[in-house]
Amino acid sequence: MINYKEKPFYLDDEDIEWVEKTWKSMTKEEKIGQLFFPIGYSSDPNYLKYSILNKNPGGLLFRTGGKEEMFNTYNFLQKESRIPMLLAANLESGGDGIVQEGTCFGKQMQVAATDEYEQAYRLGKVCATEGKAVGCNYAFAPVVDIDLNYHNPITNVRTYGNDKDKILAFARQYIRACDEEGMLTSPKHFPGDGVDERDQHILTAVNSLSREEWDDSYGYIYRNLIADGVRSIMVGHIALPAYQSEAEKYLPATLSRDILTGLLRNRLGFNGLIISDATPMVGFCCAMEREKAVYTAIMSGIDMFLFNKDYDEDYAFMMKAYENGDLTEERLEEAVKRILATKASMKLHKSDNQQPRVGLETVGSLQHQKWAEECADKAVTLVKDNQHLLPISNEKYKRVLYQIIGDCDSNARVENTFVTEMKKYGYEMIPYEREVFDFNKPLPFDSVTQFREKYDLVVYIGNIENASNRTTNRINWYALFGLGNNIPWFVKEVPTMFISLQNPYHLLDVPMVSTYVNCYSNHDAMIKTVVRKINGNGAFTGKNPVDPFCGREELKRL
Q1: Within the chain, how many helices (H) and strands (E) appear?
Q2: Nearby residues of 481 by Cβ (< 8 Å), 6 or more positions away
Q3: What count of other Cβ atoms lies within 10 Å of the Cβ of residue 475?
């Protein structure tokens, strides 16, 4: 049963009347359509009208685009939709989550490294104002997972770290800022990622905590956010066997009535909107045949079904399930009314469904860029400098051999910014060039003496993103043994430094490097900040939101 007048909706009589009248006026096609939250790929009006809106979806996430395109697309969608839409984006680290010109404020772990809750509030402000400027009204954020397993390739810098109290405090500030701007938020990924070392994008992950452990960690965070009045929660394809019966054990939460209805609705008392994570993920798809999974998700407690393997097919599966009784009228009514109640709580029904053309100037504004620079300055963290290398100077370390580690699309930008900034301090920047060798010819490798004569300092720039569909985000070397200059065999010959722009745990693979810095984000403001600080212009004030030594004593000592 939905409590319209209670937390988190707080609807008045007029709002409730709109929900009930809208439900009664809807065709079965419109009711089924409201359950879906597809992804949009083209701004062509015919595509939007006849491939998306023809099925009356309750929401949509559109690919990132230019601010003019995004504004026009979202305005068209709202204008053409009979029922106002939830229009979402992954606004985890800034306005660039929806707009190409948007501000890249910084990953959540960067925000946490400042140890200032104000920075999370600013992150929320940037995300909400820049998103709202183009018509977005729903942030798939904040991430409230706990980064308990340093091997996990997908949580990592997307989280606020491993301290439940700080995660809750930072999440609250982000949500407060979004609430002030009328942006719906969706803490994720219930029942909690970060325990398993595996990624739910490519299998069903498992949160293996006991009931007591879960209640005291993830449960603590969600219980408090629900008490605060959060209106939406995103559920991941993550099993929680401690709270699942034998019949459902190891099912992803998105298909588990024990977790969705038993734990989230009944035990935690959540009265708001439950949305699934993206259903094309393997963690969802591999659990049961898709035709059954589509309606089972709704019957288990999901209200909105995020993304599709095939939009037409999934819609047909859902309609078939409704017509043959696998998806009951009672459950459909509850889900759709909860979607409508969420929209009413946002007052979407009281707008004219057309966005005013104001606020675009906030996208990538100077104020937001300044905030991003200030956050970077407070976040960059000196993890160790056992060789007393810092600060460096061009008088002592003129010739710098540098190498970008990782295969990200951003490598060229990262390299250009880093080299440009270092040259401002007078360094001769020498890029590492991969050796090509043939055992039938003389090997083209430096001797120790040659290496020491050529370079005064070696700097590694770790630019390995945590991204979906990867089993690990650790360093992979391609040097043969220690023959080439790719792998740091030379740390006792020439001073060596490692700057990680994204993954805070790279010391696991480079324990021999005695000077190590964590940055948590790879945007230009952070790169400029770390170059400035290693050259002695500004103190390192960032605090580790996780253990960069991975619980291993030798990583501290070496």
Answers
A1: 19, 17
A2: none
A3: 18
pLDDT above 90: percentage of residues in the chain? 91
- The model's pLDDT over 531-543, given as tens digits with 9 standing for 90+, comes to 999 999 999 999 9
List active site positions. Answer: 277
> Can you name the residues that pair with 206 across neighbouring β-strands?
239
Count of other CB atoms within 10 angstroms of residue 131: 30
Residues 280 and 277: their CA atoms lie apart, in Å, by: 9
Helix (H, G, I), strand (E, B) or coil at 457: strand
Q: In this structure, is the dihedral angle defined by the CA atoms of residues 227, 301, 192 and 472, taken in order, positive or negative?
A: negative
Given CA atoms 11, 15, 19, 21 in this order, what sign does their dihedral have?
positive
pLDDT tens for residues 125-183?
999 999 999 999 999 999 999 999 999 999 999 999 999 999 999 999 999 999 999 99
Structure tokens at 64: 């990132």
* pLDDT band at 478; cut points 50, 70, 90: confident
Other Cβ atoms within 10 Å of 253 Cβ, number: 35
- Would you say 80 and 112 are in contact if contact means Cβ atoms under 8 Å apart? no
Structure tokens at 69: 């395109």
Predicted TM-score (pTM) of the model is 0.97
Give me the residue label for tokens 């999440």: 171
How high is the pLDDT of residue 135? 95
Q: What's the Cα-to-Cα distance from 143 to each of 57, 105, 161, 366, 512, rounded to whole Å?
A: 25, 15, 10, 26, 33
How far apart are alpha carbons 295 and 378 in whole angstroms? 47
Q: 476, 203 in Cβ contact below 8 A?
A: no
DSSP symbols for 292-340:
HHHHHHHHHT-SBEE--SSHHHHHHHHHHHHHHTSS-HHHHHHHHHHHH
More confident of the two residues 224 and 434: 224
Q: Name 29's Cβ contacts closer than 8 Å, sequence gap at least 6.
A: 55, 56, 319
For the chain, list the domains and their CATH numbers: 13-350 (3.20.20.300), 380-557 (3.40.50)
**Helix H or strand E segment including 86:** strand 86-89
Q: Which amino acid is at 472?
A: T
Can you give the length of the chain in residues?
Answer: 558
Distances (CA, A) of 45 to 48, 67, 75: 5, 17, 11
Which structure tokens are listed for 271? Answer: 């009265």
Q: In 314-421, where do the E strands start and end?
A: 381-385, 399-405
Question: How many other C-beta atoms are found inside a 10 Å radius of the C-beta of residue 492?
Answer: 12
Q: Sign of the CA dihedral 381, 384, 388, 393?
A: negative
Asked if omega into 548 is within 30° of 0 (cis), the reply is: no
- Preceding peptide of 442 cis, ω within 30°: no
